[in-house]
Amino acid sequence: MIGRIDTPRLIRQILAWPWLWPLVRLALVSAYLIGGVAKLSDFAGAVAEQERFGLNPGWLWATLAIVIELGGSLLVVANRLVWVGAGGLGVLTFVAMLTANAFWLSTGHEQFVAMNAFFEHLGLIAGLVVASIYAEATASRRNHVS
To answer: Could you tell me the pTM of the whole model?
Structure first.
């Protein structure tokens, strides 16, 4: 049996740093923020991207992607209704996994690249779930202390 290993003091101090949670939330959604702004600044390109993955009408899917990427990200960063923002981003990411990273439809190196991207996106969805759990747990603790 392996003995319990305590978290080193330095790591505990870093994890207790008050700005860590806001920075982690920002880092978690940074790709969505950048993607949403990029799609907004080149809407025609965003429409073409959606249509390339078979999401039609492209203008509707591009609009949904922009609203979810920017709106969901802002909710997560603001630490308000994190489950709504993270949930929307998670669903959007799942759709992207099934359309843009369908590794089961390819072979060779292309399959390898798509499979890596697929599971990276799955990890991102898991991170969004963890952020929702943590946000809810800390909100519940604050409400019980008040």
So the answer is: 0.90
